[in-house]
Amino acid sequence: MSDSTKIAPLRLKKNEDRRILAGNPWIFSNEVDIQATPLTAFQSGQNIIIENCMGKPIGTGYVNAHSLICARLISRNPAYPLNKSLLVHRLNIALSLREQFFEQAYYRLVYGESDGLPGLVVDRYGSILVVQIATAGMERVKMDIIDALNKVIKPDAILFRNDVSTRNMEGLENYIETVQGHVPDTIELLENDTRFQTSLLTGQKTGWFYDQRANRSRLSKYIKDKRVLDVFSYIGAWGLQAATHGAKKVTCIDSSQRAIDAIKNNAALNGVSEQVYAMKGDAFDLLKSLKDEQEKFDVIILDPPAFIKRKKDAKEGTLAYQRINQLAMQLLAEDGYLVSASCSYHIDAKTFKNMLLNASKQVHRQLQLLEYGQQNLDHPIHPALAETEYLKTIFMRVIPT
Q1: pLDDT at residue 2, rounded to an integer
Q2: Of the candidates 270, 266, 353, 255, which has an alpha carbon nearest to the alpha carbon of residue 305?
Q3: What DSSP state is assigned to residue 68?
């Protein structure tokens, strides 16, 4: 335990502690009393004691004057700053949740604020850990993170995939670094009885998207003997699981040749090469071409990258979601199923549902909403931080009006 008197204070303006006291872990620069505690006086990522306007400590955190979110709460007990001891404690708590629900060690081990470690993501691939640091406060304790992971997990290898755009907002450089052990070019994982090979070094994000695991499991009851189209397929997570669970034919679409090659390799790995066909190209263009060719599918999966990355892009992004869903609905058989997802935080569930309704009206189809899915439980939601609840996946039946 550290002596809190040795840590510099960050004082908030009058009434600006209300969000923190209500559970939100973020502090914005306009909430800080810069007369009492100038932000320019702090080093980037420095540990702080967060005080209310009267100087009463309300927690610990770290600060970065270069970011709009200038401070993030670590603990509501002023005696516990961000250090190796706290990291070990929070990692053990995070691990206990995952070990309760997952038989194999393939999951998101740490999901930032939701696991009490803002700015830190850790994905586990058996004995290999892939770490992403998004904030200066976590970058500052990088060596402590490595030590804590070794104490709690004892991995063979640790890879830092610090090549995400959010680091730019914190004034951090991007890099990829293996800090321990050896990370092979490809690794194999098992999800819902389907095997996949992926690259942790060059794949998207950390190499895999664990957040859709439960939703991909739900898919199995929809696809027996069906013609399936998997759009924005990446390396085939949805499409190949459809193939291994009884789909008659699966067509996967992705714009990356590397992804197309991986789909073919993973199809062979699971013995379903004859059922799986991969198409390279822009999703919008290929769907239009399939429509012109009068192709029809029984089940279509749309799991695109975020069309809305910033709030100001919400209108344009929502229209993009509507266009792609309209195209998909036109490719469905008369009585078909559409699985539509969005990982854009800036489109909420109600807006997403209304978008789907508008899309169906445009193509004269009727929707029956069957299931709602959110992110997998290794991506727990922080109840006071809406940004941690980002994934929306809707299973629906699409029939004639």
Answers
A1: 41
A2: 255
A3: S
